[in-house]
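Look over this today:
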Amino acid sequence: MKHVVNMVSENEWLKEYKDRADMNSFIKECKCDGAEVIRGGDDNTGIYCPENVVGVHLYFYPSWLDFWNMNIDGLKKHFGSREIWENYYRATNREEFLKPYQDDMDYAEAMGAEYAVFHINDVSNEEVLTYEWEHTNREVIVAAAEIINELTRGRNYHFKLLLENLFTPGMTLLNPNETELMLNLVNYENKGIVMDTGHLMCAPQNITEEEQGIDFVLQTVKNHGELAKYIKALHLHQSTTGNFVADLKTRNIIPEKDFYALWAQSYNVILNIDQHRPFTSPRVQEILELVEPEFVCHEISAKNRADKLEKVLVQMKALGRI
């Protein structure tokens, strides 16, 4: 079982890290074996290399299904104009849309990553504010599988491709039949699931306590029976924001008219729901004992390097590793 810490590949974000040796030192301070990296922009630091990159979190858009299906009415509703959505996606067609995903997969292969993570969800800015979904889980699952199959067809990638659950339409892990459908539709042989515990705790919309959340995660794994063998990794963190969601659904928030102002508005709501806080209860060990994952990513939100280290070590203490 390898423990990794989530990190970003981008020049500005990496300013707190002097060089590769400093990054490796930080990873060791976190009691981890390497990093799960997400590319956030230009990175000419040379800090990341095959020796410290264990996983790669692939590029993603929160909302993409309407563009993939060229649902013009849906795109106009959520973006206002073709110029805005083509600027947002940096694409005018499916081929251009897939390019950043393919670039990230190629990056993962070049880094010798042992696994790559693909989000299985779709949610617009407006849906975040209302919690009224426009697409079904099945619609998102089918389209996500189409994308993955297109990206991997004819490619000799060596990494495990791990499908990540979220709490908006897509693969939520609340329904084992939908989980099975997702796995069956993906043609990539070396596939599995990265179970994001925080996302899972958000999914039922009623988790308000850490112990309650741990119980729910454990029961969800058990509900999957034999399918649980596909859970190869954990994104380990907690969110207990059921009260916030209950309040949100009664507030009738007026969405901003400008698309990017609306994006900022919805992103602020997401940050209040999906908090990526460290577990503090030793009972979190029960999750690892039940799942027996190959990889545990400590996907913790933090303000800076010192804050990240402090919070990862809180979770490591709960796991009994320090």
About this structure: The chain has a mean pLDDT of 98. The beta strands are 2-9, 34-39, 53-57, 115-119, 160-164, 191-196, 231-235, 295-298. The radius of gyration is 19 Å.
